[in-house]
Amino acid sequence: GQQVMQIPQYQHVQEGEDFTTYCNSSTTLSNIQWYKQRPGGHPVFLIQLVKSGEVKKQKRLTFQFGEAKKNSSLHITATQTTDVGTYFCAGSKGGKLIFGQGTELSVKP
Amino acid sequence: GAVVSQHPSWVICKSGTSVKIECRSLDFQATTMFWYRQFPKQSLMLMATSNEGSKATYEQGVEKDKFLINHASLTLSTLTVTSAHPEDSSFYICSAPFVRLAGGPTYEQYFGPGTRLTVT
Q: What is the pLDDT of residue A1?
């Protein structure tokens, strides 16, 4: 079945350092979505990427969708303690979301 | 904005009993809702797709007789864990898709706050 792989599983950074998480699908995706889940909370929608090669920015967050629509990345510039949480990519196919394993980000002040 | 609620937020039950979890879309209608299960430090695993007015679609490996899903209205889906066992203890989350049209259609999933089930 369809799989969405995400790396790394954990990332510990010093506040101010950059952070990147990568997502790769075994099949071509209709679109890819990114979610953030704070400890003890539920996933919150961040963004959706639809077009091949698309790049979107939200303040310090940059999201990219690969040309083949099979991979994606999320890059955070100059992390802050408020960025702490687990970031999930989710591939959309057939109306369903298949989540990656998530990358847990911890930020040391 | 779109809000999804879940009830209860946590429940403790004895082995062998059944537990019902409700998922409601508060300010929008959802003909489809999704049920996920999340174990600690793990990702969300899609269990089933709940369809208003028709049978739910279960993912491979999910027992439909154990996890009963009913989508009674355009704003309510329920998940009943029947004859619960300790291995069913988990965080159950529902979501509902919401289409945001401004700036080009965006198909977002709005998640409920989750229900933490502990089976003793």
A: 61
